[in-house]
Design a protein that fits this description.
Strand content: 15-25%
Strand order of the largest sheet: 2-1-3
Helix content: 10-25%
Largest sheet: 3 strands, parallel
Low-confidence stretches: none
Mean pLDDT: 81
Number of strands: 8
Order of helices and strands: EHEHEEEEEE
Distance between the termini: 33 Å
Radius of gyration: 16 Å
Shape: globular
């Protein structure tokens, strides 16, 4: 399938077990609106429920590769991204993760970690401004 030169094909996949949270559904609507009004990119949404989760992620990745798309954005069905990951497309990075805040007792931690090779342990990162390089986002 041909598309306009300079246009990026972006697959947005929502791996799910048959339901999508209201926040994610609203984010999907905002992404569509932004694509129609602010960007020249083509968005392709994949929301079919596939179990288990790992199979869904592999399926969506294969669909993206087979379609010769430029980017694959995976968004959990239960947590809407705190920022729209489509804003990061122009950074042209291989992998971008948008962390989710997790309540842990009276504290909030972010599911972002770096690996300490010397101590062979994971160190959870705090909040930072802008893009940072980490080893895991989950």
């Amino acid at each position: 399938m041909a598309w306009a030169p300079g246009t990026k094909r972006i697959h947005i996949a929502l791996p799910n077990q048959g339901w999508i949270s209201v926040g994610v559904a609203c984010w999907k609507g905002q992404a569509i609106q932004a694509a129609l009004t602010e960007h020249e990119n083509e968005l392709i949404f994949n929301v079919e429920p596939i179990k288990p989760y790992d199979s869904a992620v592999n399926h969506y990745a294969r669909v993206c590769v087979d379609d010769d798309a430029d980017f694959l954005v995976l968004c959990d069905a239960d947590n809407a991204p705190s920022i729209c990951p489509l804003q990061l497309i122009d950074a042209d990075l291989d992998i971008v993760g948008c962390p989710t805040p997790i309540k842990h007792g009276d504290n909030i931690i972010w599911n972002v970690a770096t690996h300490d090779d010397v101590g062979d342990r994971w160190i959870y990162s705090g909040v930072s401004d802008g893009l940072v390089e980490v080893d895991a986002v989950g």
